[in-house]
Each structure stands twice: as C-alpha cells, then as structure tokens.
Amino acid sequence: MSKVISFATQKGGSGKSTLALVLAAPLATEYGLRIAVLDCDYQQSIVKTREQVDAANFARLRETNPDAQYPYDVYPWQLNRIFDFIDNPEHNYDLIIIDVPGRADGDDVFNALTACDAVIVPLVSDYLDRASTAEFMTILEAIKKAADDAQIDFQYYGLPTKRVAGQREEKEMDDYIDGLGLSRFNSYLGHRKAYTRASTLYSLLNPAWARYAGGTKDTSDEIRRVCEELIERLGLPDRRATAVASVSTASTSTK
Ligand SMILES: Nc1ncnc2c1ncn2[C@@H]1O[C@H](COP(=O)(O)OP(=O)(O)O)[C@@H](O)[C@H]1O
Ligand SMILES: [Mg+2]
C-alpha cells in the first residue's frame, strides 16, 4: 500500500515543488523507495525539470550506460483524478508525492489533500506568511479531526524551508507554530542556491551532482535529516542497505 503525501500551502512561491524535487531523488536512490510524483501544479515545474533540464543529461548518461533509469516516475496529473492514480493496483509505489497548486480556495485542492496520509506544509519564516500559513494548518487540523473520527490515518506537519541560520524570525516562527499546537518537523532545509538546482535525475546526495549544483556538507546533512525524519514519521520502509544507488554512482554526464 503506497503512502501518499503532498507538500501544500495556501500560496505560491513557498517552496512546495522544490521540496518535492530536493527530496524525491535521494529518497529513491539513497533510501531505496519506489516513488511517483504527480505534478498537479500550474507551473508543472517538476515535469518541466524532467523534460527540459534533465532530458539532455539523461540522453548523455544513456550513451555510456544504456540501462540507466530515472530514479522515480513523474506524471503530469489533474487534481480531480488523484484517486484514479492512487487506486490503480498497477501503481505499486512506496511513496506517492502530490505537488499541488498554492491555493486554499476551491474544493479540488482539499479533496486531493484528503487522499493523503500526510500533508507537509513548507514553513517560511517571514511575517507576511506566518498567519496565513497557520490558518492553512488549522484547516488541516480540522481535516485531521474529521479523519480521526472516521478512524482514517491523516497527519500534517510543518517543515521549515528557506531557513536562514541565526535569524530571529526562524525561532519566532517555530514558537508561533508550537504555540498554536501545530506539529512540525525538527529537521529543515536552509535557504541555499543548490536547492534551486535540484534535478529529477540526480540526487543532491550524489557527490558529482552536488559539486555541480553547489551542494555542500550542510546541504547533504540537511537533506539526510529531512529524509530520515520523513521515513520515520510516515513509517516508510528504510531500504538504505539494499538501495543500489545505480544512477548516483555513475559519474554525472553534465557538460
Ligand atoms: N530552500 C530553498 N532555498 C533557496 N531557494 C528556494 C528554496 N525553496 C524554494 N526556493 C526558491 O523559491 C522559489 C519558489 O519555489 P517553488 O518550489 O517553486 O515554490 P512553490 O512550488 O510553493 O510555488 C523558486 O525560485 C525556488 O527556487
Ligand atoms: Mg510549485
């Protein structure tokens, strides 16, 4: 049975698609999870990353490694057809990640979110977002209550991203969210250029790609911490031992 999650919030530009991009590849290659990403976002940024950014690298990789595969599947998908994908017995994934548009109006987003085992809300610590993010999480709290009553497992968590170390707003955001009794991850992603260069082919834990994308030990540590907290909180299988980092060991064919 696949676990279904979504990175969702009430506005655009808060890092939902980036979280999916940064985490999906390492979860597949380093943690051995079978993953599908359903891109239901207007910008189709994940589909475009695969079709535009990764396609050339993949073709080049295939020249030296004809059996190379993308580490996970990406589907352009419609919000109102989420259950068609989830209920299809042929879709045998450990984890399905839904990238949704950044809005809270309209039932289609919330219907899609009710299909999730967990909704993860990017927490960006600027004042303007704080109240509306908390409002969005309070709506998720209501969904959770309804799910609890129906004995359906539904979780939601805040996940800090675009974090700037030592900035007081970060602590204030944590205290604000904790003060509202809303749950959040202990791990987080910093505000880093490397995350804007995430690929659907290579993981930022792949040393060659990390070098190319400007990744550092900090980015690797951050990504690993978030991956492991996600696996633990969702009860996903941890196949690190068996994960054959097939794609990631091959030298990246970036020119
Ligand atoms: N952790 C991060 N560090 C640096 N830039 C980020 C980070 N997360 C997102 N961004 C940048 O913020 C912008 C919006 O991110 P995006 O993932 O497209 O947001 P959303 O999907 O919520 O609309 C993009 O330019 C992206 O590169
Ligand atoms: Mg997006």
SSE blueprint:
Elements: E1 3-7, H1 16-29, E2 35-39, H2 45-64, E3 73-76, H3 82-86, E4 95-99, H4 107-114, E5 118-123, H5 127-149, E6 155-160, H6 168-179, H7 207-213, H8 217-234, H9 246-249
Parallel strand pairs: 1-4, 1-5, 2-3, 2-4, 5-6
Helix pairs in contact: 1-8
Bound molecules: adenosine-5'-diphosphate and magnesium ion (MG).
Organism: Hymenobacter ginsengisoli
InterPro entries: DNA_Partitioning_ATPase (IPR050678), MipZ (IPR015223), P-loop_NTPase (IPR027417)
Pfam families: MipZ
Describe the structure in your own words.
The protein is an alpha/beta fold and 255 residues long. It has a domain at 3-120 and 190-237: Rossmann fold (3-Layer(aba) Sandwich), CATH 3.40.50. 44% of the residues lie in helices and 12% in strands. It is built from 9 helices and 6 strands; from the N terminus they run βαβαβαβαβαβαααα. The protein has a 6-stranded parallel β-sheet, with helices on both faces. α2 links the parallel β2 (35-39) and β3 (73-76). α1 packs across α8 (217-234). The longest helix has 23 residues, at 127-149. The radius of gyration is 18 Å and the shape is globular. Residues 247-255 have low confidence and may be disordered. The structure holds adenosine-5'-diphosphate (ADP) and magnesium ion. Adenosine-5'-diphosphate (ADP) binds at residues 12-18, 45, 102, 161-162, 189, 191-192, 195-196.
